[in-house]
Amino acid sequence: MADFPIEAVRARFPALSLTDKGRRRIYLDNPAGTQVPQAVADAVSLCLLTTNANLGGYFETTIAAQQVVDDAHQAMADFLGAPSREEIIIGANMTTLTYHMSRTLGRAMKPGDEIILTRMDHEGNVSPWLQLAEDLGLVVRWLPFGERSWQVEEATLNDLLSDKTRLLALNYASNLTGSINRVKSLTAIAKQTGAMVYVDAVQFAPHGLIDVQELGCDFLICSAYKFFGPHMGILWGRLDIIDGLKAYKCRCSSNGLPERFELGTPQIELMAGLTAAVDYFAELGGAAGQGGSRRQKIARAFEASIAYENPLAQRLIDGLADISGLTIHGIADPKRLGDRVPTVSFTVDGIVPETIVRQMNAENIFLWSGHNYAWEIVHQLGIPAEQGVVRIGIAHYNTPNEIDETLESVHRVVAMLRQQRS
């Protein structure tokens, strides 16, 4: 952890130096959206000021705008390990893209076909498929997670598969428990029946290197604003799959890839910011001594950030474990840090999570309470959905001092609320 250039990293994020009436900010709301480096904001601004045009013309700004779009697709191909930028579909957000792709894939499904959804996923990878099933008469099979392992288990998945299974919708990491699923092995099991696999990697993407070719899945989706970029979603689809799909689109729009799935005028300025976000990772890897391709530098950046984040997560978990009546909903064993991202959720006996969060927000410690769209998780665990959990999410720009301040606040706020109840 000591080797990570935390001060140099923090210097690149202007928001980290902001204060409110002289009070510092501690950003631990990162699972809902991270702050951005200056380079991302600069790229968005530069695009708006110098390459602000629609696509398809022959004058300078439209040609430059097309280059911005092409660069963003290539940047995400490098980020995800995709062999071609044609496989990268960029849109408004993860949920919108998933709704669009679910309807596209539904063209080939018929009543009685089966889809598998997990009890561990964000609602953005559940509701689109549930509503597709309702529209088409599909059968939904529910895949719970293990409450000891906090992961989806291969044997449980295997028991649900049949020759009617058409799709498995699976998350890479949970936005509530932080648990990382063994996506590669789960995908291999599902593929044995011929099912397609659609992976939500929104929560994993800020914290680990994704290699879509190694995973073997058919689709993988993530959100740029969760990994220091602008508000947009990115969907990777395996070329031999997406090239055969008939998209919902305007009759006169392009049938090329990925254009047929990118409806309307693209968010060109945000694509400029997306490329800058990917390049931020590459620059971090370069600063850690890695040469070679952008992909190689990104891989090194994640090695460095994981080595920095994991001790912070354990520091947080250990400090929370000292509070009586507090339950951490997720992996707490230090030997299993590699099986989770640094998102830690908890409840405290007799205290509504929102009351804790309100007090801590008032101290300029930014975090969330509620179900956070992990609707199936709270129901499987028996947590009241209207209350949910307290969620603390670490990014690699957070510091040990921030974790210590946060722990001190949790201890003090819980003691105060208990005293008020007595």
Automatic annotation (TrEMBL):
Q: Which domain of life is it from?
A: Bacteria
Q: Which SUPFAM superfamilies match?
A: PLP-dependent transferases (SSF53383)
Which Pfam family, an example, fits this chain?
Answer: Aminotran_5
What Gene3D superfamilies does the record point to?
A: Aspartate Aminotransferase, domain 1 (3.90.1150.10), Type I PLP-dependent aspartate aminotransferase-like (Major domain) (3.40.640.10)
Q: Where is the Aminotransferase class V domain?
A: 26-404
> Which keywords describe this protein according to UniProt?
Pyridoxal phosphate
Keyword hit for Glycoprotein = no
Q: Does the keyword DNA repair apply?
A: no
The residues the entry assigns to the signal sequence are none
Name under which the protein is recorded: Cysteine desulfurase-like protein
Originating species: Mesorhizobium opportunistum
